[in-house]
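Entry:
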Amino acid sequence: MGQGPTGLAVVLSLAGALPAGTPLLLDVGHTLPPAGDALSRGRGLDCWEVRKHNSSEWCHFIRSNPDCQLDGGFLDYLGGVFCVFPPQLLPLAVTLYALWLLYLFIILGVTAEKFFCPNLSAISTTLKLSHNVAGVTFLAFGNGAPDVFSAVVAFSNPRTAGLAIGAVFGYLGLYVFYVLTVVLCTCIHRRQRRDGLAPPGPWEPEMPANVEEPEPSGTNSGDYGEEYRPLLPSQETSLRILTTALSPLDYRKWRRKPWYWRLFKAFKVPVELVLLLTVPVVDPDKDDLNWKRPLNCLHILTSPLLCVLTLKSGAYGLYQIQGIFPVWALVTLVASALALIIFITTSNEEPPKYHCVFAFLGFLASAMWINAAATELVNVLRTLGIIFQLSNTVLGLTLLAWGNSIGDAFSDLTMARQGYPRMAFSACFGGIIFNILVGVGLGCLLQMTSSQPLVKLEPDSPLVWVLAGTLGLSLAFSFVMVPAQCFQLGKAYGLCLITCYLVFLCVALLTEFRVIHFSTL
């Protein structure tokens, strides 16, 4: 009986209605609501009320109010607005934050298009995965891993009770069963096609779509302009290979492009340079698989450092073992030794047999970049919402929900644009299933030692039922419409989903503002 409300609570958290990291699971018989004026009444002042006070009290209000503590992130946006900038320069702060918000979108787009998706494609090719299987496994993991970490942290709250052992393994077992079902159906379909029993659908074979003047996955100048390459291969020094691989500009293309393209490229160059330094890219379509020996050896050091220093805003990387030796220093020593061994045992001309491992490393590193950028984006959006005095519920239904989903949206849209719509579509459903089942399962698995056997949530707002009802109706709609259209989805299906979301948003906001009343709840 306790499983339903628990799953509902986690769904609502992952949907963006509740702040990330909020303890959602409650002790039996007690209600501990998270921050948010729809779900917590009379629990202190909400952060958006800061501008109702005198400007001289803004900084103290921000520092002393628990609702003003941003989850994760490297920059204190609220402190910057209300403690650093004087009140008369508030418009300047809003303008700077808006520009930084646009730049975060650029970071997300570049990371997804040129690093995350190419590595995912390389993994699928190496493991011979179908696009459906890749979507519900690796792409779903890349999209949902940060949310799962947040769910695990929420469950680790000392006030949090654990689920029964059967419920824990039930959640994990459901996800395993879901993935195995997709894999089994794919194997059966392939066998039937091989035996001539099932003709290929009109969507197969799914080849990458031709886009106008596509750029390569690795943004180095050596990949541009095949016609300019010498006919005879020449031996290049490691230093030249490194400098060439780290150049994000193609100067021939730069001269041909208009001024606005150059301006946009100038904004992207710093992002591409940092990504080239920290994220390896494997390209199965190239003879050398995009093997750059000095740069890939450098990635052995920079990628693990990136992962430990961006996960939970560097909390794990800065943790000191036995209070003496930091984790980042240990990672540096181990990675440096491994990079040196690889550099000595490989050559510049031929990639090693284990080069495909770099695709997994690049996939993980790019996912961490997307997570870090998305976290900063969410914090900026929440800060702007507080500046404009949006309540926590309105903020959660709009800006925070969009910000929490922007990383997944960039990854899925980029995969679809590059010619893998089935992989992107599978990840849309596989990601949320991964978040709910694995997030709840792992979180409760870590809390099995709790003395409380069950979890109980008593929703105290009609908004909870609006959220849950819309989620259920949207899934039921897709469950009926997708098979009804023989799994051939067009614009009408997408427009219906967008319309459903807009209707839901209107109903949810009207419910929050007490325009719509549910007398039975």
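The beta strands are 320-321, 325-326.
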